[in-house]
Design brief:
Blueprint lengths: L3 E5 L2 E2 L9 E5 H4 L10 E7 L2 H6 L18 E7 L2 E16 L2 E11 L4 H5 L16 E2 L2 H9 L8 E2 L3 E2 L30 E2 L6 E3 H11 L22 H4 L1 E4 L14 E4 L13 E2 L4 E3 L9 E10 L6 E7 L2 E5 L7 E4 L7 E9 L5 E2 L1 E10 L2 E8 L3 E2 L5 E2 L1 H4 L5 H12 L1 E5 L5 E5 L24 E3 L4 E10 L3 E10 L3 H10 L6 E4 L16 E11 L4 E4 L6 E8 L14 E7 L6 E6 L2 E5 L2 E5 L18 E2 L8 E2 L3 H13 L5 E8 L2 H6 L5 E4 L2 E11 L4 E8 L2
Parallel strand pairs: 10-35, 11-37, 29-43, 31-33
Antiparallel strand pairs: 1-2, 1-5, 3-44, 4-7, 5-6, 6-7, 8-26, 9-12, 12-13, 13-36, 14-21, 15-16, 16-21, 17-20, 17-23, 18-19, 18-21, 22-25, 23-24, 27-28, 30-42, 31-32, 34-35, 36-39, 37-38, 40-41, 42-45, 43-44, 44-45
Length: about 700
């Protein structure tokens, strides 16, 4: 029997002799991120003794002025045999009277720890502080291309994967396809084929999201606790996690800028007139001083913008970057007179629009002037232009709208992760099972530093042998693992062809490890579903339509079954850099301006493209390898690597749950962890749950036999 002491500030409260204080721990708590920092809360009934009446200042007597203020919580602590157990706050709930006399005070003890949902709340990923310079990215053709080509080292926290939001891509090396939209074969710089740069969006490494969670939720930022994850699983040397990215895709179709008015700048791409002293750059016209002074001078100038889209645009003419002529928003073609084009300097054109405009047909400059006493008229047609947005890509405004708790829960479900808080306040995160990629797990071994190794406690002499129950352990007839989002075109096509969701697994347990040995019809629940709140896209490796040879190109297509732009759930994928022996792709920066790109990031569900290197992937069920010509399977699935051992073991016909009562000594109550084991009569058991009365030492235990 332990002696329990309860203190409010420095005063010790009197307790009823039979007052029970219990704490429950279960393996499910460590598998649920919502249970991280699980608080200890206990309600007490304490006698209205003279000591307690003094402490609570006879709270039942409301005529006392300046008495006990029950609206506030006061510092408190619980001790067992004078050993500190919990610290926190105590709140007086009320007092019960019998025969008009005070009998019992009702109080609640709140532990100092705070549950993770209480810290994070309903905050979404967009609330995280992606404000550092490393996250400031311009959305334009040059940057999109640079992030498509960026090496896997520094700077690859944001990349451009080959996933289009609308445009269908293919590969055809036939010479007749030079101007086929979406054809990735590079013909020449003047071709109009290739992937339109503004069909692509950036992606963010998941590791960065975890870092920003830690950066935001600190006591320095006025949060109740610091959130800090261990590096057991979330680290830079674990490719299983570190190579995962989230596509920054908040809305269907084109990237939506922070401002509703998009600025498309610098439509002047060249000038080939007859007057040699009009100097032309790639984006501007430079008027030398000798041309605007008598006798040489520009008499008049105008710019015509041909816009057949019907979308209202505003045309702005700039001198040295400052607007000198601005037209209102007008649909269709516009011709703008530039009367002040009489000064030397650099002239440019800016187009603004409130809705998406893909392309203008023509942008035409007409300049009338006098050179050496002779009149001239010079006209240049810049030609069709793909509009080039120059707005900032703000990660917090582009990241999918998912709550932080849902994001963390999704990761925990994918990799069967568990978590607990160590003595230093660090959230230790590791897989429940040992895997080939991670040499330690929660249940079986210590972490890399040798700390927190599971301990086996011999408890035979503490167990009440008079009563024990042995029950079936199998809780369900079947378990389904699946992603919530499988609505993209190729995934939907797979679902229809095979009558099964892409990447999902249905496990029907029995006596065989394959999960096909029968059903437990006595299970209390029909089906248990493990649903991950992410999109699971099926990708396509391209073959050359001209001959059928395989390429090194794999792409994603974010459209629905009707080939319309699609949002879906947040997309998680592996990014693989293609840089050796690659098939070059055509990258369209502008009309008649196409680059050849031989280094690029492709999306994948597999950590490695070559099955000989590894078959680890983020499918739950075994699927054909999209990149390996469909001849090999993704066998090292999330289920087989991270879930199977536990699930198959639970479905084992020899598995039982033993329910018993024990009287554990204080040294075990204080120190045991849910990954420890108990030995009883030479048999070793895993802990499923323990509820312990801290005063009596009596524990109600559910133990799983090892098989």
């Amino acid at each position: 029997m332990q002696e329990l002491q309860l203190y409010i500030e420095s005063d010790r409260l009197d307790l009823f002799e039979d007052e029970a204080v219990s704490i429950t721990q279960t393996i499910q708590n460590v598998k649920d991120p919502a249970k991280i920092f699980t608080s200890f809360t206990q309600t007490f009934s304490v006698p209205a003794s003279s000591n307690n009446n003094k402490i609570f200042q006879h709270y039942y007597n409301y005529n006392i002025t300046g008495g006990y203020d029950a609206r506030t919580k006061k510092a408190g602590r619980i001790e067992l045999n004078t050993i500190p157990f919990k610290t926190g706050r105590i709140k007086l709930e009320g007092v019960s009277l019998k025969n008009n006399l005070a009998h019992t005070y009702r109080i609640t003890f709140f532990g100092n720890t705070v549950e993770l949902p209480d810290i994070i709340g309903d905050d979404k990923l967009g609330s995280l502080p992606f404000t550092e310079s490393k996250y400031n990215v311009t959305y334009d053709a040059a940057t999109v291309k640079a992030k498509l080509e960026i090496a896997s080292g520094v700077g690859a926290h944001i990349i451009t994967p080959l996933i289009t939001h609308t445009q269908a891509l293919f590969y055809n090396s036939a010479t007749s396809t030079q101007n086929d939209a979406g054809n990735l074969y590079y013909h020449s710089a003047s071709g109009t084929n290739g992937v339109d740069w503004n069909e692509l969006k950036y992606a963010l490494r998941l590791y960065e999201i975890l870092e920003q969670i830690e950066a935001k939720y600190t006591t320095a930022n006025d949060y109740a606790s610091n959130i800090a994850f261990s590096t057991d699983f979330f680290n830079t040397t674990n490719p299983t996690f570190y190579n995962l990215y989230m596509w920054l895709h908040r809305k269907s179709g084109d990237v939506e800028p922070a401002s509703q008015v998009t600025t498309f700048q610098t439509l002047i791409a060249g000038y080939s007139g007859t007057v040699s002293n009009i100097v032309v750059g790639n984006s501007t016209i430079t008027i030398p001083a000798n041309l605007v002074t008598f006798p040489n001078r520009i008499v008049s100038a105008e710019v015509e913008v041909q816009n057949p889209s019907g979308t209202a645009c505003s045309v702005i003419v700039n001198l040295n970057g400052s607007p000198i002529v601005t037209s209102p928003f007008v649909a269709g073609d516009q011709t703008i007179t530039v009367p002040s084009m009489v000064a030397n300097g650099i002239y440019s054109v800016t187009i603004q629009h409130e809705e998406e405009v893909d392309q203008l047909d023509d942008v035409i400059w007409t300049i009338d002037g006098i050179v050496s006493g002779s009149s001239y008229t010079d006209t240049v047609n810049v030609g069709a232009k793909i509009l080039a947005p120059t707005f900032d890509f703000i990660v917090s405004q582009q990241i999918p709208e998912i709550s932080i708790m849902s994001f963390l829960t999704g990761l925990f479900k994918m990799f069967n992760l568990v978590a607990y808080v160590n003595d230093d306040g660090l959230i230790v995160v590791r897989p429940l099972e040992a895997t080939s990629g991670v040499s330690y797990s929660y249940l079986t071994s210590a972490d890399v530093s040798g700390l927190d190794a599971p301990i086996d406690y011999e408890i035979s002499k503490y167990v009440d042998v008079t009563e024990r129950a042995v029950n079936i352990a199998l809780p369900y007839k079947e378990v389904i693992y699946a992603y919530e989002g499988t609505g993209t075109y190729f995934a939907k096509q797979h679902n229809q062809l095979f009558s099964a969701n892409w990447g999902a697994l249905r496990y029907i347990g029995g006596t065989e490890a394959t999960g096909t040995g029968g059903i437990n019809y006595n299970a209390s629940t029909e089906v248990y579903k493990v649903l991950v709140p992410f999109e699971h896209m099926k990708y396509e490796r391209m073959v050359n339509r001209n001959g059928g040879a395989s390429t090194t190109i794999q792409w994603g297509w974010s459209v629905n079954e009707n080939q319309q732009a699609y949002v879906g759930k947040p997309l998680i994928f592996y990014a693989v850099k293609q840089s050796t022996g690659t098939t070059a792709i055509a990258f369209q920066e502008d009309v008649n301006d196409t680059d050849s790109v031989s280094n690029y990031w492709i999306p994948s569900n597999s950590l490695y493209l070559d099955p000989a290197t590894g078959k680890q992937n983020i499918n739950f069920g075994a699927e054909l390898n999209e990149y390996d010509d469909g001849s090999d399977e993704f066998t090292d699935t999330l289920f087989s690597v991270y879930h199977s051992e536990y699930i198959i073991d639970v479905f084992n016909e020899r598995r039982r749950i033993t329910q018993l009562t024990s009287y554990l000594p204080l040294r075990i109550i204080y120190n045991f962890k849910l990954n420890d084991t108990f030995t009883l009569n030479a048999e070793t058991y895993l802990i499923n749950s323990i509820t312990t009365d801290l005063q009596s030492g009596k524990s109600k235990m559910e133990l799983l036999n090892q098989v």
